[in-house]
């Protein structure tokens, strides 16, 4: 049968289905991204983590132009980060002395920049790979992974975090990390959309993965085991120092007095842990105070671990005008304590300002330069030694990086993270941060101690469960016991490589499958 030119054109270029107006579609996508925050702490409505990506999948209609698909994805990602990471406003405006209008503009620019990840996800999904749930979920994971390293990374608001305390799905964390949980959740969300479109066959892969996850939950494999040594008694000190006073020279002695007083009843514990930069001056300026605390620790058979800005005198070059590099650090002192850890991942808008050179030319924006010039620690550092154990460390923001925490956890018996989330006030930021620590504990099968200035100070077991927790914004001490564990989870051994390999393979199969189907259709139309 020979087709006319008109019939051939209709087959090659079928009439595009009528959809919603672009402006309305973009608005729906923006709102779908914005509501995702309710899936995470402190709200914990985890079904939203399925509904939100399902809406984006449903909006990306067949035969949609690449430009339209990109705009929809961009809107989703912009809504996701402008609302989900709005806690940045507190640090930028309240403590960074940035005017309201510029702070809001910076949040909007951040949202637009981070929205590009979902914009390109939608574009590639619409134009380059087969339009089905597996390719959509695979692209989702690749864009989450890229957020951990591209332009230093901003690894926040991952779908998998919504299921941290949902054992039926979080059982995948020690096997393949948070990205495996995100994959199953997004795949399930997209598959349900196809089910509603009466394409139930797409449910099979997601159901199979849910069965695997449920089996892991039921059999409860013990990837790590207790070391066999007595649990360590620990005292986590929460000083609750107001952020607007913390770095004032005239308040430094008061800060030291607060921590010394809170700790006075805790000498005798196996481990006393102070938060990030609880000593608000370098080890050189605070030498006498540090020696006094270390002496008390030695006399009471206590290991003392504290956060402190550390000046590297050995790296000072007198021939230049530059200061010696200094680091956001953790140091272990006292009985059976030794080692120094230098933070590897610095906080945007906290420890440095992106595009700071552009801001410096504007009037009245200088200030807090001391927190903008921390140096980065090496990727290869030895763990701290505490009571005969190796202690893995993560300072504040870097616990959000799965692979950084994984590398620091290798060869350790338990983990600690210290933070000063006073930067973010009473926003959702500190609680989202705690949720990430729970996921890191799950991934690595290790207990976590988390000491913070204003909260949330907590002790978390190897299953990601909060064992002890102090109230926020109170000057207090959290006491408890932590268990040393040995062995490695599959995620600790192999990291993100297995899940990234599977995602890449799925996308390649989808890409070549789409090309093959297109060629078959074109060949059939010519007959």
Quick recap:
The chain is α/β, with parallel strands linked by helices and 527 residues long. It has helices spanning 5-12, 22-34, 48-59, 66-84, 88-94, 100-127, 133-146, 167-170, 173-176, 178-196, 203-219, 243-246, 252-263, 287-299, 356-360, 402-409, 429-444, 490-494, 497-525; strands at 225-226, 232-238, 271-273, 303-311, 326-334, 337-338, 340-342, 384-386, 389-395, 414-419, 448-452, 458-460, 466-469, 476-482, 485-486.
Could you name the key traits of this structure?
single chain, 527 residues, alpha/beta, Nitrilase/N-carbamoyl-D-aminoacid amidohydrolase, 2 domains, 7-stranded mixed β-sheet, 6-stranded mixed β-sheet, N-acyltransferase activity, Apolipoprotein N-acyltransferase, membrane, EC 2.3.1.269, acyltransferase
Structural overview:
- Helices cover 45% and strands 14% of the residues.
- The termini are close together.
- The longest helix has 29 residues, at 497-525.
- It is of the alpha/beta class and 527 residues long.
- It folds into two domains: 16-221 and 496-525, no CATH class; 225-362 and 374-494, 4-Layer Sandwich (Nitrilase/N-carbamoyl-D-aminoacid amidohydrolase), CATH 3.60.110.10.
- The chain has 19 helices and 15 strands.
- A hairpin with a 2-residue loop joins β8 and β9.
- It has helices spanning 5-12, 22-34, 48-59, 66-84, 88-94, 100-127, 133-146, 167-170, 173-176, 178-196, 203-219, 243-246, 252-263, 287-299, 356-360, 402-409, 429-444, 490-494, 497-525; strands spanning 225-226, 232-238, 271-273, 303-311, 326-334, 337-338, 340-342, 384-386, 389-395, 414-419, 448-452, 458-460, 466-469, 476-482, 485-486.
- Residues 8-12 and 363-372 have low confidence and may be disordered.
- It has a seven-stranded mixed beta sheet, covered by helices on one side.
- α6 packs antiparallel against α7 (133-146).
- It is a multi-pass membrane protein.
- The chain crosses the membrane at residues 20-39, 45-62, 69-89, 101-125, 145-163, 169-190, 202-219, 494-512.
- Belongs to the CN hydrolase family. Apolipoprotein N-acyltransferase subfamily.
- Its EC number is 2.3.1.269.
